[in-house]
Amino acid sequence: MTIINFYNNIFKPHLEKIGKFTLLKWSFYFAEIITTSKVFGTIYDKLRFRVGDKTYCFAYGNVSRCNFGVQMSFIGLLVAVYTLTLSIFKVYINVPPIMKWNEIDLCSFKLGLWIITAPTLTSWFIRKFEKKYARPSHQEDRMNKIQRMDKMIGGDVRKVRKMCRYTILILVISFFFLILEKWENKKKEKIKNN
Question: Residue 26 and residue 92: Cα distance in Å, rounded?
């Protein structure tokens, strides 16, 4: 069987059944899972670390703030995975009523979660950084400390910020696609009824 026949016999009927908005929506959900998991993994593995029995978090001031970032990003990751799997299962199987959630509601929840979490983590980092390196007596010592801090955690903090921004952007775009998909479905229902 050639590739063209394989595409025409297997993929094309499924693509027509699913629709272009649904495929775009799934790709954005998958991208959201990737960015959210990068936020979770970076905070959990690189910004929060253990030495013996003690846990440290140099980025946000104390361990409870790092734990907040870990927990919120993990909740966002779980909801993102649930949203993608629910959306896929709705196309292929009959989902039980207890599992049916409106995708716009889930997207709104995730958007609210990230709009609160990202600025909170950023403000904690800025506040901690300003407090620690405010006005030392020796300017050269201050610059050395800032450079050391940037070598230790600077790249990871910037990665968390960037991935949070990407996650919010992806959520806004997927929210837009959800509204377009709903509008397209209403148009199809109107055409069927007429």
Answer: 14
The CA–CA distances, whole Å, from 137 to 140, 143, 144, 147, 155 equal 9, 12, 13, 17, 27
Residues 168/111, Cβ–Cβ less than 8 Å: yes
Which tens digits make up the pLDDT trace of 111-155? Answer: 999 999 999 999 998 888 777 766 666 667 777 777 777 777 888
Q: Over the range 88-113, which residues count as b (16 or more CB within 10 Å of their CB) and which as e? A: eeeeeeeeeeeeeeebeebbebbbeb
Question: Strand 48-51 vs strand 54-57: parallel, antiparallel, or unpaired?
Answer: antiparallel
- CA dist list (Å): 86 to 29, 65, 83, 174, 182: 11, 31, 5, 15, 16
Contacts of 82 (CB under 8 A, 6+ apart): 106
pLDDT at residue number 137: 63
Distances in whole angstroms, Cα of residue 61 to Cα of each of 32, 39, 57, 65, 147:
28, 18, 6, 7, 18
